Automatic annotation (TrEMBL), chain A:
Listed Pfam families: Ald_Xan_dh_C (PF01315), MoCoBD_1 (PF02738), MoCoBD_2 (PF20256)
GO terms for MF: iron ion binding; oxidoreductase activity
Source species, domain of life: Bacteria
Name under which the protein is recorded: Xanthine dehydrogenase family protein molybdopterin-binding subunit
Classification via InterPro entries: Ald_Oxase/Xan_DH_a/b (IPR000674), Ald_Oxase/Xan_DH_a/b_sf (IPR036856), Ald_Oxase/xanthine_DH-like (IPR016208), AldOxase/xan_DH_MoCoBD1 (IPR008274), AldOxase/xan_DH_MoCoBD2 (IPR046867), AldOxase/xan_DH_Mopterin-bd_sf (IPR037165)
Gene3D superfamilies: Aldehyde oxidase/xanthine dehydrogenase, a/b hammerhead (3.90.1170.50), Aldehyde oxidase/xanthine dehydrogenase, molybdopterin binding domain (3.30.365.10)
Organism, as annotated: Streptomyces coryli
Automatic annotation (TrEMBL), chain B:
Name the record gives this protein: Xanthine dehydrogenase family protein subunit M
Keyword field contains Repeat: no
Assigned keywords, A-Z: FAD, Flavoprotein, Oxidoreductase
Molecular-function GO terms, alphabetical: FAD binding; oxidoreductase activity
Keyword Oxidoreductase: yes
Stretches assigned to the FAD-binding PCMH-type domain: 1-173
Length: 788, 284
């Protein structure tokens, strides 16, 4: 075994899971069936806010094929309250959240009753036979009005719509402001977004009634957390509950949740003693799968005339929606330390108020708190540059942390381990043709071109790799942030990697195979990755927050090192050599100075299996496990440059070119990185230009289908130019950083900055997201009016 | 897809289809590809007792030359319409607009007749057949396009009447352009303008303009058509003539646009469509 090949880590391998996923030779949750399977359907409130005077399911029970129908009152004793695992302040308001409403509905889509039937058609038909009397109550839709003393209340028993107030002062902001020559105040809006994973949510519960055991399949990102939470919520003992996330088709945070439907499928399967399935339709998902973002941001920045930043203040109103779900209140707080981003300043003040509204609950959506922070700082940096008459890239350069200053502790108290903003920006400027585009923009402005050119910049960083458990403790999270891996070498020399991460599109089977193959010195094809099943991979904390590689991949790396360490002991024994004299490369142990004698790791694995010749006291088999609890976050960064053409007659925005240079440290698989960046850019651009969950004045969701909620497709997006610089993280042994959210975090402000930049000469300073053609056109009209 | 229960029939002939339709009455729906009916069934916005699938009636498909007009079978798919050499030569506007409908998968299923019978003013093809002065042939009669679209999602078709052919006058040599303004590639037009122009020595001899999504039905920009007759095919002249492009329209409000903005778009897009149509001649 002396096949010297290029290292596995860093290879652009095609994903080994794709053949299965693309050809459909796999199980999605909705494909799973069982003898006697019953189908659950849910009647949802058509009103944003109403008292339930009567819910009568009697007629539904008489419908053909119907096995059972229940109101919230019928289930009240066993359905419990859905958990919120991250109460961000001591005095946070935590309302009750029954999976099926009992007395009151609080958003359009809130469950009112359930039907269980022999097939999905019978279940859907029977919903129409349920009679409900509603007394409408006032909806609560506006974040500012919700905080007024006379506002109607989402939760009358709580006497307030204020969920929490969070304040993090860092230095003396008012003193910094007093020294400033320039103080800018801006209000930015983060619209509500609908995560829109390709695969809708789905859950199947298979009970073994006699044993009191349950297997729950769910299209979830978090089988391990879900198992704990379902045990706590339903009282079913944790060890009697197996949760499986089979192949899962995307999540973007929307499947980082403990949903009422999962609880309902479980308690109904228990009650009826039969398998139960529920799968949402797309329009049901738009109502009832949690939404993302939803913030009003009041941002103030203080600087000297020469452009040196002195201080930053962020005051947020964050839309919780009607209830607190698993991580709802923590989402804006995950951005708390990231508003200062890559810039040095003396003082920073962060405030956030969580507000209840009668709308779908919000929670994690790709980026979760950091896109909001990045948007605010990168937008206001452009505004400050315009105010000071400076080139926006130069203003950033003037204020950012220099390469030689790392590690650097920011004003917000985050210690960035590494970074090289100069290198990424220099590269991006070249790829973009920055100077040529600046010249073209000037020419078009001079000529009064109908099609204006705008240049948008985003020099972002973000914190990812959730998370050091002690940091989570200090932030009042209910859980830790470690991740587990174990590796077992099989008798034939193959290896199984058991990971606690739960991929739903990220390609862990490929990336973890590369890591294990590299360390163990065995072929990539000889590694199998097992995940997403609490019986197969019992220890884990799942996949979200760009954590999997940095935390879970590190655990795989460390576990593989432990395997090699044990193999070294066995090999030394077999070769009658000192451990210290053994070299290990390309999967083989050799004795220094006599390379002809060698033992492959496969031979060692077989010897560990037979156990015929192990050192005294050594346990048989070759395996190891490792749990990584990171010391700090990972801080990817990069420079994104976007050029747009704005049709000033129609308001249409066309992205002409998009260049991003990301620094995510060492790369395990550049193809997977490319895919993550492309998808992330698409979602960030979608927020800038296309997507918005819209409610009418009565609180009805008017973007309830993909005809109204505009998810862009390939024809709507430009050809991305992507490149990387490589500044290894110093906080983990592989030097890796997360990449799952970087594209989304960076791209939204780059695009909006470009649109505003194109129109600044016309007097436009702000356009709300998404920058729809009509909004852009109106901004131009208003600027024209104002200049008259 | 979880629609309510319905009966399904797939007749092999026009006669059998009409018999099924007359038996079924008001609660019968014709499935002519499924571009619009399938989503409506899926979202339980439509509850037919009977769905008559006319997708296997061969005589409803194809394009033929009929002297000064083309005859297009109602069940000819968008994909076939946009690639048909006769359509491209003599009704280029129809081919161009059809190429913007939905996405390739839908264009392989959806049909010209289905789109017209659905009578959605946001659909691209009603405005095109209106601009082309097409005739719609049914199992009962021949209806001029101007009389076919009655109201939002309402055509002149009786419940037991099947659209069989679309007769499109040949506008060989005319310039044409379909200007579709939509927010993402798969979305409906916020506003669309179908323009066909007969050119004569740098002037516009005649213009036909249909507007998509500017009223409960597709509409002609009649004032602009009149103003364009004899106008120079130049920017300023066309701009002047297209100022009234939104006259007589009744656009709706939705998440993508207010009526005021739609009227503005109609003016801008009509100018652009006419200028593009009046530009250098192209070959099919």
């Amino acid at each position: 075994m002396t096949t010297s090949s290029e290292p596995e880590i860093g290879r652009a391998r095609l994903r080994k899971e794709d053949a299965r996923l693309i050809t459909g030779q796999t199980n999605w949750t909705d494909n799973i069936t069982a003898p006697g399977l019953l189908h659950l359907a849910i009647l949802r409130s058509p009103m944003a806010h109403a008292r339930l005077d009567r819910v009568d399911v009697a007629a539904a029970r008489e419908r053909p094929g119907v096995i059972a129908a229940f109101s919230g009152a019928d289930l009240a004793a066993e359905q419990g309250s859905l958990p919120c695992a991250w109460p961000v302040t001591e005095d946070i308001v935590l309302p009750d959240h029954p999976p099926v409403a009992v007395d009151e509905v609080r958003y359009a889509g809130d469950p009112v009753a359930v039907v269980v039937a022999r097939d999905a058609y019978a279940a859907a038909d029977a919903l129409e036979a349920i009679e409900v009397d509603y007394t409408p109550l006032d909806p609560v839709l506006d974040l500012e009005a919700a905080l007024a003393d006379d506002s109607p209340l989402v939760h009358a028993d709580k006497d307030t719509n204020r969920c929490f107030s969070y304040h993090q002062p860092c230095g003396d902001y008012e003193a910094a402001k007093a020294r400033a020559d320039v103080v800018l105040h801006r209000r930015y809006h983060q619209q509500r977004l609908i995560p829109s994973a390709m695969e809708p949510r789905s859950v199947v519960v298979l009970p073994v009634a006699a044993a009191g055991e349950y297997t729950l399949y769910s299209a979830t990102q978090i089988p391990h957390i879900l198992r704990v939470m379902l045990a706590v919520t339903t009282g079913i003992p944790e060890h009697k509950l197996r949760v499986i996330a089979p192949d899962v088709g995307g999540g973007f945070g929307s499947k980082l949740q403990v949903y009422g439907e999962e609880v309902l499928a479980l308690i109904l399967a228990k009650r009826l003693g039969r398998p139960v399935k529920w799968t949402e339709t797309r329009s049901e998902g738009n109502l009832a799968t949690h939404h993302g973002r939803g913030q009003i941001q009041d941002i103030e920045i203080a600087a000297t005339r020469d452009g040196t930043l002195l201080g930053l203040k962020a005051d947020l109103l964050a839309d919780m929606g009607a209830y607190l779900m698993l991580l709802t209140p923590s989402i804006p707080i995950l951005g708390a330390t990231m508003f200062p981003a890559i810039y040095k300043m003396d003082a920073y003040d962060f405030r956030c108020t969580g507000v209840f509204t009668t709308q779908t609950p919000t929670d994690a959506y790709r980026g979760a708190g950091r896109p909001e922070a990045t948007y605010a700082i990168e937008r206001i940096m452009d505004d400050l540059a315009a105010e000071l008459g400076r080139d926006p890239l130069e203003l950033r350069r003037h204020n950012w942390i220099k390469h030689e200053e790392f590690p650097y502790t920011t004003v917000a108290g985050m210690t960035y381990d590494s970074g090289n903003y100069e290198a990424a920006t220099d590269r991006a400027q070249v790829l973009f043709g920055y100077d040529e585009l600046v010249a073209e923009r000037a020419k078009r402005n001079e000529q009064g071109d109908i099609f204006r050119l705008g240049i948008g910049i985003s020099t972002y960083t973000e914190m990812c790799g959730l998370a050091p458990s002690r940091w989570l403790r200090d932030m009042r999270s209910g859980a830790g942030g470690w991740e587990a891996a174990s590796i077992r070498m099989l008798p034939t020399g193959k290896a199984e990697v058991i990971t606690g991460t739960s991929p739903h599109g990220q390609g862990h089977a490929t990336a973890w195979s590369q890591i294990a193959a590299d360390v163990l010195g065995i072929p990539f094809e000889d590694v199998e990755v097992l995940h997403g099943d609490t019986k197969l991979a019992p220890v884990g904390l799942d996949t979200y927050g760009s954590r999997s590689l940095v935390v879970g991949g590190t655990a795989v790396y460390e576990a593989a090192q432990k395997v090699v360490a044990k193999a070294r002991q066995v090999a030394a024994h077999l070769m009658e050599a000192n451990e210290a004299d053994l070299e290990f490369s390309n999967g083989a142990f050799t004795v220094q100075g006599s390379p002809e004698a060698q033992k492959s790791i496969q031979e060692v694995a077989f010897a560990a299996f037979t156990s015929h010749h192990l050192p005294d006291g050594m346990q048989p088999t070759l395996s190891a496990e490792h749990v990584t609890d990171p010391d700090t976050f990972s801080f990817p960064h990069g420079t994104h440059l976007c050029a747009v053409e704005v049709d000033t007659e129609t308001g249409a925005v066309k992205i002409r070119s998009y260049v991003c240079v990301d620094d995510i440290g060492k790369v395990v698989n550049p193809l997977i990185v490319e895919g993550q960046v492309h998808g992330g850019l698409a979602q960030g651009i979608a927020q800038a230009l296309y997507e918005e969950a819209v409610y009418d004045e009565d609180g009805n969701l008017t973007s309830g289908t993909l005809a109204d909620y505009l998810v862009p497709g390939a024809p709507d997006l430009p050809e991305f130019v992507t490149d990387r610089t490589e500044t290894p993280a110093t906080s983990n042994p592989m030097g890796v950083k997360g990449v799952g959210e970087a594209g989304t975090i960076a791209s939204t402000p780059a695009v909006v900055n470009a649109v505003v930049d194109a129109l600044r000469p016309l007097g436009v300073t702000e356009i709300r997201m998404p920058c729809t053609p009509e909004r852009v056109w109106r901004a131009i009209q208003e600027a024209k009016e104002a200049s008259r | 897809m979880i629609p309510a229960a319905f009966e399904y029939a797939r007749p092999d002939s026009i006669g059998e289809a009409v018999r099924l339709l007359s038996r079924g009455g008001d609660e019968t729906k014709v499935l002519a590809g499924g571009q619009s009916l399938m989503p409506m069934l899926r979202m339980r916005l439509s509850f037919p007792d009977l769905v008559v699938d006319v997708g296997r009636i061969d005589e409803l498909r194809g394009v033929r030359d009929d002297g000064d007009r083309l005859v297009i079978g109602a069940m000819t798919t968008h994909h076939d319409v946009m690639r048909d050499p006769l359509v491209r030569e003599h009704a280029g506007l129809l081919a161009a607009a059809t190429a913007t409908v939905a996405d390739p998968a839908v264009r392989h299923r959806g049909t010209l007749g289905g789109s017209l019978a659905h009578a959605d003013p946001a659909g691209d093809l009603p405005a095109v057949v209106l601009a082309l002065d097409a005739e719609l042939v049914t199992t009962e009669r021949t209806i001029r396009a101007a009389e076919f679209f009655r109201d939002y999602l309402q055509s002149a078709l009786a419940p037991d009447e099947l659209l069989t052919q679309i007769r499109v006058p040949k506008l060989t040599g005319w310039g044409y352009h379909y200007e579709k303004f939509h927010r993402v590639a798969q979305a409906w037009a916020v506003v669309g303008v179908a323009a066909a122009v007969r050119r004569d020595n740098g002037r516009i001899a005649e213009a036909r303009i249909g507007l998509t999504n500017m009223a409960p039905t597709p509409v002609r920009a009649s004032a602009t058509e009149e103003a364009l007759a004899g106008a120079d095919a130049t920017g300023p002249a066309v701009e002047e003539a297209t100022r009234d492009a939104a006259e007589g329209t009744r656009p709706s409000a939705d998440a993508s646009a207010t009526p005021e903005y739609r009227e503005h778009l109609a003016r801008v897009l009509t100018r652009r469509a006419v200028l593009a149509a009046a530009g250098p001649e192209r070959t099919a």
